[in-house]
Amino acid sequence: MIEVGVNGYGTIGKRVADAVDSQPDMELVGVAKTKPNFEAHTAVERGYDMYAAIPERAPLFSEDGIEIAGVVDELVAAADVVVDCTPSGIGAENKSLYESHDTPAIFQGGESADIADVSFNARANFDEAVGARYTRVVSCNTTGLSRIVAPLQEEYGVEKVRATLVRRGGDPAQNSRGPINDILPNPIGIPSHHGPDVQTIFPDLSIDTLGLKVPATLMHVHSLNVTLESDVTAAHVRQLLEDENRVYVIPEGLGIDGAGKLKDFALDAGRPRGDLWENCVWGESIAVEGRDMYLFQAIHQESDVIPENVDAIRAMLDVADKRESMRRTDKHVGIGVPSDPSGAGREDDQVEAEPADD
Amino acid sequence: MIEVGVNGYGTIGKRVADAVDSQPDMELVGVAKTKPNFEAHTAVERGYDMYAAIPERAPLFSEDGIEIAGVVDELVAAADVVVDCTPSGIGAENKSLYESHDTPAIFQGGESADIADVSFNARANFDEAVGARYTRVVSCNTTGLSRIVAPLQEEYGVEKVRATLVRRGGDPAQNSRGPINDILPNPIGIPSHHGPDVQTIFPDLSIDTLGLKVPATLMHVHSLNVTLESDVTAAHVRQLLEDENRVYVIPEGLGIDGAGKLKDFALDAGRPRGDLWENCVWGESIAVEGRDMYLFQAIHQESDVIPENVDAIRAMLDVADKRESMRRTDKHVGIGVPSDPSGAGREDDQVEAEPADD
Questions:
Q1: Annotated catalytic, B140?
Q2: Is the pLDDT of residue A112 over 60?
Q3: Within 10 Å of residue B75's Cβ, how many Cβ atoms?
């Protein structure tokens, strides 16, 4: 049983905690949080042990009726691995804490790549994280791009990727962010940082990315062009992507024309928080002109990195290979077609029954 | 003096009327409108003769205190040329009216290309409209793309254009349109119709376009990639675009990061309605990677086609060549750096003084 601590219990941390808690081969030691806000109360209701991320603020929790299990030092000491889900830049400040306890740690994509031994995407480079002490799960957008590039590269070869990332201005709860009525090139300079970030996963990939921010909160949308090394058909690309469990190819006819309906679809299916862990690619959008492949995909910034964090744990501790880890993660998180949240329709229960630790 | 009638007095029509009215070689015969709304009252205050676009509704105008000069038939009969600025699809219904009076007409980009003898962009194909009876000024987005493609093609050769059009959901006054909080691939199918529309101007151009709609009203933003036929530098491309009078290269340091500040900039400069007739290209965004050129540009959907309509009039009646027509249009509309709305800083007054009809 892998003992996992989660440091930071916001948008990503609370989802990582739930995902870890759902895995039969993992145990959630507890979560660390800076203050007793609504999310802290939810954690307590879920039975998660709460640790004070800032020891001096520990009394605030008891004043608010939350009994803490200790301070973050104790969480780090007790865990086999810590998933750092603190805001960008705080992860870097926390690294010495993990080093002092000799506890392996996973950082999020908001940290710079040099914080870790390896930048990670399960589909693309699982093996590079095997045995690593420090791993960085790349950002939501980089994860979304990596999941598409990996199968394309393996199947056809990739000459060049050009992607325009139409990014949501902020998450639904980030009510101080904008823009309200504007379309912002962001950054104005080209290329954006996303291309180089994808290159932390695919070092030899030729990729140019352009970023914008718009007045929306639900998901990012990518306008993606990949010049392939071979002649292909749109139907072949579509089948390739449909075979990826972390890519949901939206069928025509469902009337899903944007992120709003995707979220409704996921909520209707009973998914926790309406999460869409998969890249959501509009099947109808997959097009090939010469060797240029195009598609639109929506990326749920709050949840697509969650399964990657779970897989990073197994890779670092070398307890399962890529295929087995992704299979377990997907099954227990519930990844698959949103209308089938159990994932059972895409799993082979016979195979599933075999592993003793699963 | 060219007698011009404007049929339709909404977002485009009112701007075309003002632009025509500002040209010393043109006279606005009048404008036709379906109903006496706020725009009709503004037209009367400006001294424009009002014609009832639907004869049966003529009494509505007098009931509302607006004395009409006649009905649309009379306007068409009196004009040397009519600019049809009615909503998409209505222009096609009006064509027989223009034919019955043997009056040349200009249609807008919302009509299908086969409505006219030629699809028109002054910078790209002025000469093709010389002597034409029916001309279609292409849409705002196609105009914006054509103004960039033309100089790039002439200077470097263009191998392929790939553009993602992040489109405003509706104009500021179109308060029944959306989306409110979403990023919609629109159309979901790739390519969008914009690429084929650009090919009505550049028949041999290889171009793929992708369209989206977002919750913004002020301007469209294009994420543009052009694979050139020669090796170039970003600085060279920038200079090339700065030499185009209908392209405004936004300098670094002005703090203009989006459409909101562009509109404020134009309004502060005293431009009518805060119009931005030029493509607004972020100078800082112009980048070259290999033979791939990238840039971001904002396109003011309400006004960028206005100077093209004025030039189309001169081309069809063959009263000025391309260079002379564009010079006159730009001078009298006020096109140039937004902080210099007179355009005087970019005009040679000596040359200007010479033409008798100007």
A1: yes
A2: yes
A3: 26
